[in-house]
Task: structure prediction
Amino acid sequence: MTSFDDLMAFQRETEALSQVAGRLGWDQETMMPRGAAEQRAEEMAAMESVLHGRRTDPRIADWLAGATPEGEVEAAQLREIRRAYDRAMKVPARLSSEIARVTSRAQGIWAGARAEEDPSVFLPILTEVIALRREEAACLSDGTGTSAYDALLQDYEPGATAAGIGAIFDEMRPRLVALREAIRASGKVAPTFEGRFEETVQISLAAEIARVFGYDFNHGRIDKAVHPFSSGSGLDVRITTRTDPALPLGALYSTLHEVGHGAYEQGVDPTYLLTPIGQGASMGVHESQSRIYENQLGRSRPFTSWLYGRMQDRFGAFGIADAEAFYRAVNAVETGFIRTEADEVHYNLHIFLRFDLEQALISGDLSSRDLEAAWNDRFAADFGLAVQKPSDGFLQDVHWSVGLFGYFPTYSLGNVYAGCLNAAIRAAHPGLDESLAEGDPSPATGWLRENLQRHGALRSPRATIEAATGSAPQPGPLLDYLEAKFADLYDL
Result:
């Protein structure tokens, strides 16, 4: 056995234990009885203690020093192990375990506060979460010259900086706002749905769409959650959705979004199973998959024409006259409060708000007690609406309750990446629309699996997009796509 072999054998056990910890998180958000929250927090803390011990095992340094990679794959494995080891060594075991314990508790408290519209229940533990993440960021950034926020950002988008992301967002904002204002000025109103839509039928149709897009139910399942998410990698990749009897598109497109995540994990080269590169390259690259499945493919005119027929088969008449009207309804541009329900024009504006606020929270420029007021003021300025209840405002997302500071900007990075990937797919498959009209997205999903998904974390996030598309990621293709699509829809 070489140093590399010893290291990889050890790492596979660590990756397996990490998957077990992830399954505990999945259970907590889907099936765990509410009264188990305190015990689950202790279980999560215990698992994190074990994992932190393995991630900082002194043998890793020796193995890394003695390992000589043979080829690109082994070099990538060592790169990822070294990066994780260096970060883990900077964070005390006590802090790592406490973050797991507190964020597990905070998730349940957030869900209760959101349901009761009572921020006072949530703010004390949010203050704890922020303090712990600041402490972690101080450990990670010590001696590196990086900011606390940039240190946290590396967990979600390695190599990215707040300044670099901010420059991309600054480039995007004027064209998005101009497009929104042009749509408002058009005076066109999209058709609306009528009636109620049985939950079990929604779930059944969502499952059909998942299969159409290549999600493998042999190695996955769909459950319900307050906030839809995906979990797992390799041979066990689970997704969730949510339903509303008056709003069937929420369930269908939440599912399709999570299918993008799930298909990515299911599509990684099986020889990478339970290794550091046997998962997505970053959350931004992950979001590129979920967003292109949901939007450029799932909300396209040809695919919605197929979906309209399936909706009629399942629900009968629902107030939409024809496939073109359905396409307009699916792509309606309306200013709203909820990020996960936002149309493609507004979505990134929701992310820009969160990106700025969470930087202020981590830097200490904004306290948790002032967060609700800061959110409401910023939302009114950006969207022209007054937030009426906390679940429409700062309590709507789960991310800050579980300490995911640095995650939000990856949603918009994912949109940018998806714009680049869509342009590349269209160039490779000029007849894609004909397939989509038949309910067959496989030319696109097959291209994504071959050119991006199967490689997992073999390359850095930026290099992953460059290798797939042939050029560096930039926001131009996304903005061009949005302007062309909505100029057509709203006669601009």
Observations:
- Strands lie at 222-224, 230-233, 236-241.
- The chain has a mean pLDDT of 96.
- The longest helix spans residues 3-30.
